[in-house]
Amino acid sequence: GAVVSQHPSWVICKSGTSVKIECRSLDFQATTMFWYRQFPKQSLMLMATSNEGSKATYEQGVEKDKFLINHASLTLSTLTVTSAHPEDSSFYICSARDTGTNQPQHFGDGTRLSIL
Amino acid sequence: RKEVEQDPGPFNVPEGATVAFNCTYSNSASQSFFWYRQDCRKEPKLLMSVYSSGNEDGRFTAQLNRASQYISLLIRDSKLSDSATYLCVVNMGTGRRALTFGSGTRLQVQP
Asked: What is the pLDDT of residue B37?
């Protein structure tokens, strides 16, 4: 069964709206979760690393004020796309990994965001 | 040079064929390796980890060559349901806990 749950799976909204995406680890505690974005026919690109109880670490070129990340508990991280515009339309996927260096990452189902 | 490099394909093969994908990675200190499968408009799912001695899971065989910084995936007796994008994934170490993804190799198995 799923070990990482992501919600919602599909969002369509108007330009200027802020959208919150939730990511939960179901079977384990995740001190670290990851947020990726994938545009059509492109690879997953890491946006940020979400750290429980502290600030997220953003990859180069990702605006921290635009993509707000909150990791308030060991099982929940949220990504808020603030004032979304059509160019933010993408597939957003979270993942988490259990403890241990060589553990694979498990992904949520992803959120398809369409901004009109 | 990309950190993880794959041939994008597509590989079009008939059912029953054997197909192999290759992947190279740039960081010799990389610690762990995986193959993920991603279906169209879906999230990636772990197919198998790749171990130094090579490993097999049913029709799938993964190999790792640390000296050449090269990973492979072999699929035998291809099924229609194997059609997907196969992602080579590496834990680069260097303090990064996130995995680094290749851009994927698309496989289309045809009847």
From this structure: 95
The per-residue pLDDT for range B5-57, each reduced to its tens digit, is 998 889 999 999 999 999 999 988 888 899 999 998 888 999 999 988 889 99
Percent of chain B with pLDDT over 70: 95
Contacts of B104 in chain A (CB under 8 A): 43
* Whether the Cβ atoms of residue B48 and residue B62 lie closer than 8 Å to each other: yes
Q: Which residues of chain A have pLDDT under 70?
A: 1-2, 99-102
Mutate to test the interface with B, among A23, A36, A43 (most CBs of B within 10 A): A43
Amino acid at A116: L
**Any idea what DSSP says for residue A69?**
E
State how far the Cα of A116 lies from the Cα of B63, in Å rounded to an integer.
45
Residue B95 is predicted with a pLDDT of 58
Q: Are A12 and A112 in contact (CB under 8 A)?
A: no
Report yes or no: A107 at the B interface, CB cutoff 8 Å.
yes
User: Do the Cβ atoms of B98 and A107 come within 8 Å?
Assistant: no
Between the alpha carbon of residue A82 and those of residues A69, A85, B95, the distances in Å are 11, 9, 29
Output helix, strand, coil percentages for chain B, rounded to the nearest 5: 5, 50, 45
Rounded distance, CA B21 to CA B108, Å?
13
Best residue in A105, A106, A112 to probe B by mutation, most B CBs within 10 Å?
A105
B42 at A interface, C-beta within 8 A: yes
Determine the Cα–Cα distance for residues A6 and A8; give it in Å rounded to an integer.
6
